Amino acid sequence: MRSTRSRMSSTKLLPIASLPLAPPHLSLQHNLTSDPLLASPKKLHDVQLAYPSAQRRSRILPGNSHFSHVSPLPIPFPFRIQVPDEEKDKDGQWIEDWLSGREATEPAEKASEEGELKLWKSKKPQEGPLQLLALSKACLRDCFPSLDVGDAFELLGTPKLASNTTTQQDEPAPHAVRDELTSVLGGRNVLANNSDDPEKAYAPWSLRYCGHQFGNWAGQLGDGRAISILETPNTSPNAEGQVWELQLKGAGRTPFSRTADGLAVLRSSIREFLGAEAMHALGIPTSRSLSLVGLPEVPVERERMETAAICSRVAPSFLRIGNFEACNGPNQVFLFGGGGKLEKGWEGMRRLTEWTKRLLGVQSTHDMVREVAKRNMRMGAAWQAYGFMHGVMNTDNISVLGLTIDYGPYAFMDIYDPHHICNHTDQEGRYAYRLQPTMLVFAVRALKEAIAPLVGAEVESGGAVKEGWADGADEETIEAWKEEGMDAMKHVEAEGMKVFEEEHWSLLRKRLGLKEQVSSDPDRIIRPYLDLMDTHSMDFHSTFRALGDFKPSSPDAVLDRLLDSSCSFQARQTWQEWLKIYSERLGQEKGTDAERKEYMRLANPRFVLRQWVLEEVIKRAQEDAEGSRPLLMKVLDMASRPFEPWGAEDELETADEELDEETREERRFCGVGSKQFLGFQCSCSS
Fold this sequence. Notes:
The strands form five sheets. The protein has a five-stranded antiparallel β-sheet with strand order 4-11-12-10-9. The protein is 38% helix and 11% strand. The protein has three domains: 19-82 and 93-162 and 172-321, no CATH class; 346-498, no CATH class; 514-602, no CATH class. The protein is α+β, with helices and mostly antiparallel strands and 686 residues long. The chain has helices at 4-8, 28-31, 41-50, 93-100, 137-143, 152-156, 176-185, 266-281, 321-327, 346-360, 365-385, 436-461, 475-488, 492-511, 521-535, 540-547, 556-562, 569-586, 593-601, 611-623, 629-640, 661-669, and strands at 67-69, 104-107, 118-122, 131-135, 190-192, 205-207, 210-213, 216-220, 226-233, 243-249, 288-301, 305-315, 388-389, 411-412. The chain is built from 22 helices and 14 strands. Its cofactor is Mg(2+). This is Selenoprotein O.
């Protein structure tokens, strides 16, 4: 049976293995430099057959290398290999054969039509089943309108919150298109083209990058558990020359995994899957989430033993500031993990810069740095306006496109507290909510430090440098270029902060229903409002939402929603004073109270992906992953449409017990939740 989406779409739908590849001039792996050990898709395939451990061994790559080809292999690590006694004294080929049998090197039988890519499978079945647990309709619509998902949405069931309406489904009948989708997004089957023709060759890859972690230089890091599997053209209007990069998070070891397993647990995968789509719905620049696939029989050891899952995520590119630092990082030695003093990659820097300039649509390297700064400060302004806390703003987690990436111990603000730290690993509070703009400035400065010699060389030559631009340059010349480059970029941070300020106040005006830009708003309206929430420990989101019901003609009415009966007379009086000023300011705006309420409802979410919501969803999924599909899909729906009046919002006077169970649950999921989760902190492993 065809899905509803398939029947209704006027676009020809294609199985995932038949999606078109981006042309070579738009493909990262055709324009940046690969690891010489795995220099081509054909070389990767040969290694998989003969010496597969090579692609999974941690190693420091040469300075000019940007990525390494690597194939998904979501199995436990350390690898559970039981070598027969008679093989133990031999040269280790038995281990290589064991791994090779699990690599995707055999052509897979598939019902879909042939495309530019082939579908590959392993010789031996991998551990246990794959469970398609969730799929984002919004991401499909926006990024992959021609992707056929078969009967996936029938499998996932009707989205529902109420637990007693969630029933265990019978094992679905095989469906070629849906099974192909799940096998690829679950890391079992692999898309590749091992052609000797470099224009046609294609294989998955992981990025090499370095970074500052909690302010300290950490050497080479890289995609330790992320593998990009596909670049396909972006067919959206006005997106000519752009691609969507599809990436699996938790698909097994890469050369950058160091001592880790390259896997992700169900808990963290749910958080990223829901978090990215929630951010997009709020209008905050972010990577997207396509799917969530569970691997219930693949054990993963974290603080305790858990099961694996893979979140597939989407972006025009996952390049980050750490990619530039990998070409020219500080010379300090990092003692743990083999960071050390890395080889400089001057030609790698030039190629990476030329590629990034194309992505950003700028001409000069100086303009590229300026654009990276502005985009990230614009993103940071949205974080602050919507109470989002990233938790791990290391330079390797900061996108050059100004996207929110790498969702770990993130959180949305509950009770407003500008000092809140959402990551309990961040003991010094480096990435506290109030410091996030400062940490973005730190990341921009790290980019400037890395790229300054190139900018200086361009200033000296009067334009873009050519291949081999730094050949033969001594340290004195490099340092002179760096000084010239840093001087040329001296205003970048100030320009970025100006963008932050303008965007931040603009978004907060919108949340307060103010369309006109009045210069006194920050000091007279917005800061006092935030101070009131801080002083009286008020919820960041529901307070904004409730304020939409304010009417200057009856100012006390909204106070009954904002303040409970235990609030002091002084608190009520302070709020009355602010509302008087706010009422006067509203008098400068055009439109009716009803129009302002609608405007504010489109800026202030009714549903927020709070920590308690995530914890409840995770708990139910861990208890019964397949049975939690309707819950996951309903929370995804609410996160994707956060401004809707969920839970009969317009009938708040109606008692909970008078609502049907699903509406009652919607109302509960829109609430602040248990006090035990207020200010809840996650760890980096989240």
